[in-house]
Each structure stands twice: as structure tokens, then as C-alpha cells.
Amino acid sequence: MHRVSKEEHWPESWKLSHHYDELELHGAAPTSGYAYTYAERWRHTMRLVARAATPPAHVIDIAAAQGNFTLSLAHQGYEVTWNDIREDLEGYVRLKHSTGSVHFEPGNVFDLAHREHFDVALITELIEHTAHPDQFLQQTADL
């Protein structure tokens, strides 16, 4: 995954994503509990995905934001579909993409025309924002 330098002409969503990348990936606040917690969550997530399926399994990363899990999994050999309702983040993730197979499907995951089977659905930091988590999980299972 490429480390990108913030540019003033970027949209605000890219600048905010870059800020979080600096905290989460690049140690901008090394004594922060936030950075430690993110590193632990990343480690556990990668372990769980590996237990569920091995590369080149197809993974969809729903609400993938700045794409850190997407890009890490692609680098490991998974075929990953990045998805986020915030379509403007796709360009930022493309800037960071360096290796592996990544497909970009921005928008509401349940409205996408491109429907293929996924071996793993990755949902991080989303379920607490859904009005009907049971329905969301059922729809996700149908992907």
C-alpha cells in the first residue's frame, strides 16, 4: 500500500481519510491508545479472514472507507471488492493501491448491479450504525 502525501486540492473526505491513515498506519500519535487499538483490530481482522478463507478467495469489504483492510487483503493475494457508500473515497483508495486484485464498487452495497458470490464479507465499524442489524446481516449473507 502506497503512503500518500496530503495535497491541498484534495476533497475534504480524502484529507480526513489521510488524517486517519497517519494515525492508524503511520504512527502519527505513537503513544495514543487509538493507534494501538487500531493495530490490534487490524491483526485480529486479518487473522479471522485467513481462518475463513485462503487466497485467492473473493472478499467484499463493505463500508471500507480509506481501504486499509481492502488493500492489505489484496496484497496477501485475496481478490477484494472495495465498497463504500461514500463514492468519492474511491479515488483516494486508488492512490494508495499498489499490489493485488481490487475491484471498486462504490455505492449502497445492496443496490449494486454487479452481483457475484463472495467467500467472505468484511464489515468493520458499521453494524452499530444500522437501523435494522438483523436485516443487514441477512442481506449481507446473501451476497
Structure, described:
This protein is α/β, with parallel strands linked by helices. The protein is about 40% helix and about 10% strand. The protein has helices at about 10-25, 35-50, 70-75, 90-95, 135-140; strands at about 60, 80, 100-105, 120-125. A 4-stranded parallel beta sheet has the order 3-2-1-4, with helices on one face. The protein is globular.
Shape: globular
Derived structural class:
alpha/beta
Number of β-strand runs: 4
**Roughly how many Å is the radius of gyration?**
15 Å
Quaternary state of the chains: single chain
How much β-strand is present in the residues? Answer: 5-15%
Sequence of strands across the biggest β-sheet: 3-2-1-4
Provide the succession of SSEs. HHEHEHEEH
Q: What about the largest sheet?
A: 4 strands, parallel
Distance between the termini: 27 Å
* Helix content estimate: 40-55%
Integer average pLDDT: 92
Question: Which keywords apply here?
Answer:
143 residues; alpha/beta; 5 helices
